[in-house]
Amino acid sequence: MPDVLLAIEARGLVRRFGAFTAVDGVDLAVPAGSFYGFLGPNGAGKSTTIKCLTGLLKPSAGELRLLGLDPLVHPVEIRRQVGVVPEGLALLERLSAGETLDFVGQVHGLGTAERARRRDELLALMDLHETGDALVADFSHGMRKKLALAAALLPGPKLLFLDEPFEGVDAVAARQFKELLTAYVRRGHTIFLTSHVLEIVERLCDRIAVIDRGRIVAEGRLDALRADSGGGRSLEQVFVDLVGGARPEATLDWL
Fold first, then answer.
1. CATH no. for residue 205?
2. Which end of the chain, N or C, is less packed with Cβ atoms under 10 Å?
3. Residue 125: inside a domain
């Protein structure tokens, strides 16, 4: 896509762990302003790819660009413009929700008044404003998800990586997340999302890639992928056809 501004570009991305290749020659071209779904079965390489893209893991080979910048050359500049909700959330257990957001704002150089404004708005939006001095260590999984998303959004990033953001979140919070993230993309920002909840991906994402055994097996606009598979099919049907063919039939003769 030579005429499209790319938020994420990867060429020949490889990540090995000893003799095991978790990510095997992945190419990505994610247009700026897109809601991009990154799908795959468990162990396919999704989280490892995100960790390489966000600087948590060093690729074994390949080239990367985020927002047109090389992460190895401009790591600080990229971190100022990229938000991440990682698989393990990576929250500071001995801080409260408010202290967590204050800390994030200080790291990103926000002034006192602006930091407080964004903190209070996010706490209210995520329904965390009444947690007071309670420590993150005592939060439920859903509360942690809300706080992790709030922390990622507080600096006002242009690019947001979300690894399973809806897992463990109740229906009310999930609806809030969808509305918030849709508005975020509508303003011209980019989201790179992994999720096993295909109905959510189908509803939110305009473009997807499917990874299986470390390799991209399909990529493109959702409507085009459906058309390629015969048309009129759900994302779940397309996904299972792409990654499920070589797996054993789900039957047990003793049940």
1. 3.40.50.300
2. C
3. yes
Contact partners, residue 121, CB within 8 Å, separation at least 6: none
The closest of 60, 38, 42 to 161, measured between CA atoms, is 38
Residue 150, exposed/middle/buried by CB under 10 A (0-12, 13-18, 19+)? buried
Residue 233 makes CB contacts below 8 A (sequence gap 6+) with 226
Interatomic CA distance for residues 31 and 209, integer angstroms: 13
Domain count, the chain: 1
Domain that holds residue 17: 6-243
Is residue 248 a part of any domain in this protein? no
Burial of 170 (0-12, 13-18, 19+ CB in 10 A): exposed
Cβ proximity of 226 and 232 under 8 Å: yes
pTM: 0.90
Q: Specify if 197 maps to a domain.
A: yes
